[in-house]
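Summary: Need help interpreting a holo structure output

Steps to reproduce:
1. Submit the protein chain below together with the SMILES for molybdenum atom.
2. Request a joint structure prediction with the ligand placed.
3. Inspect the structure token block that comes back.

Expected: a single structure record containing both the chain and the bound molecule.
Actual: see attached output.

Input attached:
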Amino acid sequence: MEDRRRHDRTGSGETGCSRRRFLAYSAAGPLALAAVGQAPPRRAAPGTTRQDFVVQETPSRYFSHRGNGSEEMKWGPVGGYGDLIPNDRFYIHNRARPPHIDRSSWRLEITGDAVSRPRSFSYADLLALPQVTLRRTLDCGANCSAFFPELPPSGDGRWLPTGYTQWHFGAVGAAEWTGVRVRDVLAAAGLGHAVDVRFTGLDEIATPEGTVHYSEVVPAGKALRDDSLLVHHMNGADLPADHGYPLRALMSGWGANTAVKWLGTIEASVRRLPPQGPQRNQVLIGPSYPTPVRPTVGRVRSALELDDGVTLPPGDHTLHGRAWSGAGTIDRVDVAIERLIAPGRWMPEMPWRGATLLTPPEPLIWVRFEVPWQGARPGRYRVMSRARDKAGNVQPRPADVPWNQHGLGYDGHAPLYLTVLPPRTMP
Ligand SMILES: Nc1nc2c(c(=O)[nH]1)N[C@H]1C(S)=C(S)[C@@H](COP(=O)(O)O)O[C@H]1N2
Ligand SMILES: [Mo]
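--- attached output ---
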């Protein structure tokens, strides 16, 4: 029985009480588990519910609930948003309840052997530094993890970790972020030569080994770049509690795991720093990786502005979507449609067709695209989009994405299912 549940994989996050309780306990992510294949804990912490790790309301119209602290953005409403996702519609990936922080007494501590004048900053101190505003996509490294098979294709018998978050396309957003440069803050503490920078949050994550703070080690070469920020505003407003109030990191173009929320400490080190807590699991391991690889730069990905399973009327449609990459500007998107002709058999309905890019390609923020679909007739379909960036990365076929144990870095194209109904059966 236990075994069956572990193999269960509906992607809806509604796979039964036992699994949900486990998700609540395990801090809701593939990255929160210290070891692969460990048995699910027997019970949840008292009083936990699926929403314990999220402060704001997350209505099902706008969010898919992927587990405690994992609220995926639904793509259907995105067409109404403009380039930027409103703060209260932005996906959430929390491994613990956001800490309650009083900004007037909060301090950011700067420590480490690479600074000669360790000091702390108040919020007002940060506002006195030069302010920078950037439009950036924020994309979870584990976005699209649901499109990996649960077992590696090589059949070596290792499962994706039990309780890993089954994100579809929606662990991504884009916002206008305002803050200060990491570099300016560290310079004010007397930064010398640094190798690594550790960003540590004030949230307290329960793990089988005890409570840890979320932290990310970023090489100094990245952390000290012009567009590596400590942000306090999101789309012109204070950061919401779920998104890191009062201060979070933003490493432009890198996986969102490095965007540490509720920052408390930054340590600059003259030596390599060992990853701690969830970051220890943020590695690509599996049959295709003889040695573990730490993913950094965000993958090329794309999505259609449709909810999975949506119904459309027959006739002419324009399909909209967005494509993004941490490695460079998107310069091409193609869309293909297949029709279900018999159980399990799909036939091309619209072969790969170049989409029109609707916004001038801008680095590190997604580009919007559209493609016409004329004369859609009743039936069941699956639609796929495939983007390419200027660095030459193209989204591969699903079968060509190397599987990894933590479900990280999926960049293949993936199907979105929809139904075209005869006119009179439209809801
Ligand atoms: N302190 C802290 N920072 C964190 C996390 C966290 O659990 N704790 N999750 C990380 C991950 S994996 C992601 S994908 C992003 C999600 O940011 P968002 O919730 O603002 O969308 O925050 C990152 N920063
Ligand atoms: Mo994430």
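--- end attachment ---

Reviewer comment: Residues 17-25 form the longest helix (9 residues). The chain has two domains: 2-284, 301-425.
Status: needs-info
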